[in-house]
Design brief:
The complex is a heterodimer of chains A (482) and B (259).
Chain A (H helix, E strand, L loop, with lengths): L2 H10 L13 E3 L6 H10 L4 H16 L22 E3 L14 H10 L5 H6 L1 E7 L2 E5 L2 H6 L3 E4 H7 L1 H7 L10 H9 L4 E5 L8 E7 L10 E6 L4 E9 L6 E4 L2 E6 L4 E9 L10 E12 L5 E8 L4 E4 L2 E4 L5 E10 L4 E10 L5 E11 L3 E10 L7 E11 L4 E10 L5 E11 L1 H9 L4 H17 L4 H14 L6
Parallel strand pairs in A: 3-7, 6-8, 7-9, 8-11, 9-12, 10-13, 11-13, 12-14, 13-15, 13-16, 14-17, 15-18, 16-18, 17-19, 18-20, 19-21, 20-22, 21-23
Antiparallel strand pairs in A: 1-2, 3-4, 5-6
Helix pairs in contact in A: 2-3, 3-9, 7-8, 11-12
Chain B lengths: L4 E10 L2 E11 L4 E5 L6 H9 L4 E10 L2 E2 L5 H6 L2 E4 L6 E5 H15 L7 H14 L10 E2 L5 H15 L3 E5 L7 H14 L5 E5 L3 H6 L4 E6 L2 E6 L2 H9 L2 H4 L11
Parallel strand pairs in B: 3-10, 3-11, 6-9, 9-10
Antiparallel strand pairs in B: 1-2, 1-4, 4-5, 7-8, 11-12
Helix pairs in contact in B: 5-6
The chains are: A alpha/beta (482), B alpha/beta (259).
The structure holds adenosine-5'-triphosphate and magnesium ion.
Chain lengths: 482, 259
Amino acid sequence: MSGSQTQIDQFLDREYAAGFVTTVEMEAFPKGLNEDIVRMISAKKNEPDFLLQWRLEAFRNWQQMVHPQWAQVVYPPIDFQDIYYYAAPKSKKDAPKSLAEVDPELLKTYEKLGVPLHERAALAGVAVDAVFDSVSVATTFKDKLAAHGIIFCSFSDAVRDHPELVRQYLGTVVSQGDNFYAALNSAVFSDGSFVYIPKGVKCPMELSTYFRINAQNTGQFERTLIIADEGAQVSYLEGCTAPKRDENQLHAAVVELVALEGAHIKYSTVQNWYPGDKDGKGGIYNFVTKRGECRGARSRISWTQVETGSAITWKYPSVILKGDDSVGEFYSVALTNNYQQADTGTKMIHLGKNTRSTILSKGISAGRGQNAYRGLVKVLKGAKGARNYTQCDSLLIGERCGAHTFPYIEVKNPTARVEHEASTSRIGEDQLFYCQQRGISAEDAVSMIVNGFCKEVFKELPMEFAVEAQKLLGVSLEGSVG
Amino acid sequence: MSSLISIRNLTASVEGKEILKGLNLDIGPGEIHAIMGPNGSGKSTLSNVLAGRENYQVTGGEVLFEGRDLLALAPEERAREGIFLAFQYPVEIPGVSNVYLLKAAVNALRKHRGLPELDAMDFLTLVKQKMKSVEMNPEFLHRSVNEGFSGGEKKRNEILQMTLLEPKFAILDETDSGLDIDALKIVADGVNRLRNPERSMLVITHYQRLLDYIVPDYVHVLSGGRIVKSGGKELALELEERGYGWLETQPRAAAGRPA
Ligand SMILES: Nc1ncnc2c1ncn2[C@@H]1O[C@H](COP(=O)(O)OP(=O)(O)OP(=O)(O)O)[C@@H](O)[C@H]1O
Ligand SMILES: [Mg+2]
């Protein structure tokens, strides 16, 4: 290999900055999955019967299903009986009522992760619902939001305090039997976030959830449900990190978004789960189902994701465009380094008239990373005048990584217009040298080129998170330049 | 006499093939040296070696810059110390705007010199003024670096960078190729404005015409990896008339500045 290859390699050797473990006392159910575990989870959370029945139905569905094989990812079979399906920090009461009650170790963890829990949060205008393993430990700004009639709480609290809303919307976008991992999640989900924005209300602040997997051998199955009633608007951000471990951990979440007439939901993700070490050992299996439904006319759902972590990412945040004139958007940056694999993309399903969707996907592969874009644009018969624009760009860093594109297009209405553009480029030694000759270090040059490549997606992120995402990309590609 | 840059017995190879075969050259402060020579003789190799490109291996000899070992420095350190290379083939960097690269470059340099970094406003004022001097439309600021630039525009962009970075030692590798007559004058004017008693330049060209505008103190012929002849600016005229063939038989000339 030439000198510049070595330089790029050294450059890609990076440390995972969020890879620390928090020592707190944990409570867990026995390993493995059966109906009893499902019942125990439900009982533990004092759930109403409808939810238990719903979980059991999901579990029975799941038992009939086979593990999906179609994605462009490679990993050994997962032993679903070797996973803990419930783990929670033990504290005096089950759920702390204020920050003062939260285990200081936990708070330190969040601090290291940069979660703005305290006054910083107020300054940043961010309300945080922090999920630590399976139980929500701290929720801020509830009161301010409540004044607007906004509900922002853990999923468990929503089940307890607003069962009618949960019952009305849960599973209406992603059904229990939707796919293998969604069914698994439906059976065993332990917590997550719940948001309801009432009619005509524009949420006065960004809502944000940081999830953190901590306990060993624990699968995290969180469930998020966001409902924007007629004319409501909300911007939601989730950030994810997990400690360094040699074993692979499973993360199978479900996110459902419902936008009623004229409502806007903007959902942004910065995903930085532990990617495994540079030889491909350990790391999170991130198998996630995210889907939104533009249920009402003129509604809009926008997904923005920056995916830099996880050993394997398998996720397709999608939009069902049911309401006439509704709009779906997907903006994505996915980075794979070392042995990371990502198979990600979106589905835009056009049902309503004059529905529009935009897909902008930026894949970055480095080291031996493999990055696949998989997207479906489907225009049904009734979707007169539907339009889609898809742009899919890949950037390769070094010689041993790969990028793949699988666009699927199904158009059943002749008035629809669907456009697709794709490109692949490589950061060349000549580009790095050019920058270095202008006094810019190779490291800064790579950051500059990568950020340039991603800027159309970053500008879709809320300001403060765009800065965070940029830094994260820098860190994800960081190392010592020889 | 003290040279700004002093090249002694330099040998270098690319992909295992020896290209520079014992090159000697001394350039004093404020001097302009022109290098001419046949295609493939090693002119760009010399520029790349001086700028520190990684796949060019120095196999022998030394290069002193202000009396210090230049070859020990990383490419970006050489740049910050004041070495500038106007590339023969400037590379395109899609997605990175010209203004962003220029600002990063200027600030990397300022930081190195212990000066405060320029903010966006101050930088814009500075860069627009420099652009005017090389008659470049400010719209080029917001285009990606060299992407879709015409050959001449790329070369002009190199000169813009040089005027911004104000190097101590600039290497212009065929900056005249691809320029129309007007652009050639603009570029030459830009270069001449930068001429001062401290700043030295190495101008690589195939055409005597450029040297009518940028009048060199010395002209060297590089052939087969060595300087085979050195002279004053008249040597360029002679080469224009006679080509390089007559030199091959000449004994190896004493390199560097004629006494
Ligand atoms: N990266 C490389 N890989 C292989 N050979 C190279 C490489 N770079 C230069 N060479 C070879 O080295 C020799 C000198 O090339 P160089 O570019 O220095 O010539 P030059 O004098 O600048 O020529 P020109 O006038 O055409 O620009 C050539 O034979 C060239 O093919
Ligand atoms: Mg050349």
